[in-house]
Amino acid sequence: MDHSTTTFLSGYAPFHDMLFFAKSEDGRTSKQGVVCGFFGLDGEEWGQYSESVDWPAISMASIKPEEIGRIVVAVGPHGQYWESVAEAEVENVGQLLQGEKFQARRLRVVNETMFAVGMARKALRREPDGTWASFGPSLPLPEGRATGFNDLVGTSLSEMYAVGWHGEIWNWDEKVWRQIDSPISTHLSAACCMPDGTVLAVGYDGGMVRGRGDVWAPVDSGHTENLLDVCCFGGETYVCSAYKLMRLVADGLEPVANFADPEDVPATCLHLLKSHDNEAVYSMGPKDLFRLRGSVWERVV
């Protein structure tokens, strides 16, 4: 695939050899905004969906309900969505919430259920009929400052955690949301579930925090740049900033060194996309796409 004049925006990997992604053409805009197209990689085959939108897809996710097959969803920063329903051979565009403002930040899948989180501590759940229901905290927002969720992860539908602005951590226990006493005050960008069930979250100024339930503690990253994403794969924890791919070791974060070609490393990073089958992880930056399967990172694009 020629990627010299395009920019990766977001993606989702159901399998180690299947990737859905969105990208824009450099320098091309519509009267309303950027022109964003949607694509798929299946094995060695690249494909493009017919629909394009005039907003940047900031996050993507996919599920495969037995009754209707593979669904792929992308969201924009103001709650716009694009959706592909494979078996029906249809693509839909619209707003996640009708008549209500929603500044989206991330899509996530927990136990084959899709969620969207965003500003004002809003959390949405995709229902089987394709509609989105709000189930976010109903407590009043603090006065005088913006607040919101940047990510949501969970070990099950009865134990999920949302992280976001000002280091906030919230726990959903299937019945109610409650705010956790966070040991960090910088914005948290992303989170992942560790093999032992704890959650690791990363954020601005090198901030990292780990915990579960009511017990959380800061983790010294040894870095000061903003950390954008995190995932646990193959016994290692990987973290990325805008220009660096790192792994967590005993004394903090160190640059990843296990590239197939030591002279060919990603110059840009943005998302870490662990495949749903747990067999690979992709590092996606605006201009770089690498995949780790086995022991080395290899360039895909």
Give me some keywords for this one.
301 residues; Lipocalin; 28 strands; 0% helix; 53% strand; globular
Written account of the structure:
With 301 residues, the protein is mainly beta. It has a domain at 1-99: Lipocalin, CATH 2.40.128. It has no helices and 28 strands. The chain has strands spanning 6-15, 18-29, 34-42, 45-53, 59-63, 71-75, 80-85, 90-95, 104-110, 113-118, 122-126, 132-134, 149-156, 159-164, 169-172, 177-180, 188-193, 199-203, 208-212, 215-218, 229-233, 236-240, 245-249, 252-255, 271-274, 281-284, 289-292, 297-299. The strands form seven sheets. A four-stranded antiparallel β-sheet has the order 1-2-3-4, with no helix packed on it. The chain has a four-stranded antiparallel β-sheet with strand order 5-6-7-8, with no helix packed on it. A hairpin with a 4-residue loop joins strand 27 (289-292) and strand 28. The model has no long low-confidence stretch (mean pLDDT 95).
